[in-house]
Amino acid sequence: MPGIKRGTAYLLSMGCSKNTVDSERFAGTLRDAGYEIVPGADGAEICLVNTCGFLREAVEENIAAILDIVDLKSSGAVGRIAVVGCLVNRYGELGSEIPEVDFWGRCEDYVSLLRSMSREDAAGEVSLNREPLPGALSHVRYLKISEGCDNRCSYCAIPSIRGGLRSEPISSVVGEANFLVESGAKELCLVGQDLTAYGRDHGKDNALLELLDALESSLPKSVWIRLLYLQPDRVDTRLLERMASGGLVLPYLDMPVQHSSPRVLAAMNRESDREKLMSAFKAARKITPDFALRTTCMVGFPGEKKEDFDDLLRFLEEASLDRVGAFSFSPEEETKAASMPDQTPRRTKLSRLGRLMSLQESISLARGNLFVGREMDVLIDAILEPGVAEGRSFREAPEVDGVIEIRNTRPDTKPGDSVRVIVTDAFEHDLIARETRV
Q: What is the CA radius of gyration of the chain?
């Protein structure tokens, strides 16, 4: 094929960090079959798009990305096209709408991909070794400990897309963690739809704590372990104390509450109540005032009244969280909430979203100011220019939180290095710091 470099594969990973893990496994499978993973689509023999199908807006964005690659194929700039992931899980193969795609595969369908897309001289064996995608931070890796979800939130399509909870064995997670660290990882972010449910599909209630013990006893003491997405109902003092114990696990609580109004929580089919949610945040700060707290909120859920939204604002003021991610309700197909009466007008949703984020910016700024003049360890993510670097502390998760800009780094500083800094200034999302050079 003119202009096509035989034996090359380009991967476009859409959506969440769990998709990133799947994409790295697809990349590892293709690499072990003899393919070189390249940073751009132009000239690639295989273009693979790992899709997200969680929200309607994401579906539209993913379809647009696929059509862009179809245009490249039509011009002879790429070879074959493979589309895998949540979009296929949710809607099935879209071959009649996009016939230019050569392969449609579900999430984690590594075997079928290799059989369909690999060269005739490939070994034909599937490996789950992971290959970092070009341009990604090699010192920050996501570690998926479970797949699917048994919760039935009325607004969420994940159970119908990804299925029920399936926890990875502790031995497999520990083995993969060691592989990632040996490959250069300095921070491991544990991900799953609900980490606190880990092991419950095997009848275990404390499997997450067992896993953390196994990881800490196996990994180097310099590695950071960050827990992302903890279902509020199962966040207890024992887990919080474990996170703040000074080991590898960071005192960073990512606990999505979605709302605080009892009426809205009930309509969402969320088991937590306002008091339980607040008590978890207060318990964390009682253990250590520096405990980094993050949540996710939804505004404009069907039937959300002004008094419900006002309650949410009061909740955020009282909780004094470091970070909040917020979004407006989206009526998703096959969810109970999509057909609920009293849908909130779009203008109202946008107005409430803006008010919430404005309030949280002031709260985040106040929290950031508490660290001005204090020292902390920072993991370097990027060198912006000579002497200026960007990194994160225990308070900032990759991709979703702010960053710390360090303005006096050594010339030999590189991504993945850990440095000690003193914070000099705070903004709504980011901090400014100088290396202490002790």
A: 23
Instruction: Answer whether residue 32 shows pLDDT above 70.
Output: yes
Confirm whether pTM is higher than 0.70: yes
Question: What does DSSP assign to residue 382?
Answer: E
Instruction: Read off the pLDDT band of 110 (50, 70, 90).
Output: confident
H or E stretch at 350: helix 346-369
Chain centroid to CA 249? 17
* Residue 26 structure tokens: 């697809």
Tell me the pLDDT tens digit for each residue of 290-300. 999 999 999 99
Token pair for residue 39? 């940073």
Rounded CA-CA distance 77/3 in Å is 6
Q: Could you give the CA distance from residue 203 to residue 250 in angstroms, rounded to a whole number?
A: 27
Q: How many other C-beta atoms can be found within 10 angstroms of the C-beta atom of residue 24? A: 25
- Torsion over CA: 53, 103, 81, 146 (sign): positive
DSSP H/E element including 22: helix 17-32
φ/ψ of 343, rounded to 5, equals: -65, 140
Alpha-carbon span 319 to 271, nearest angstrom? 19
Neighbour-count burial of 62, counting CB atoms closer than 10 A to its CB (0-12 exposed, 13-18 middle, 19+ buried): buried
Positive or negative, the CA dihedral 37, 29, 190, 315 is positive
Instruction: Give the list of residues 6+ apart from residue 153 with CB closer than 8 angstroms, or none.
Output: 258, 268, 269, 270
> Which element (helix H / strand E) includes 141?
strand 140-144
Q: In angstroms, rounded to a whole number, what is the distance separating the alpha carbons of residues 404 and 391?
A: 5
Over the stretch 226-268, which tens digit does the pLDDT of each residue have?
999 999 989 999 999 999 998 999 999 999 999 999 999 999 9
| Beta-strand runs (E) in 209-285 | 224-227, 252-254
| CA-based nearest residue to 26, from 93, 88, 74, 73 | 88
Task: Report the distance separating Cα 27 and Cα 31, nearest Å.
Answer: 6
By CB neighbour count within 10 A (0-12 exposed, 13-18 middle, 19+ buried), where does 430 fall? middle
Q: How far apart are CA 317 and CA 303, in angstroms?
A: 23
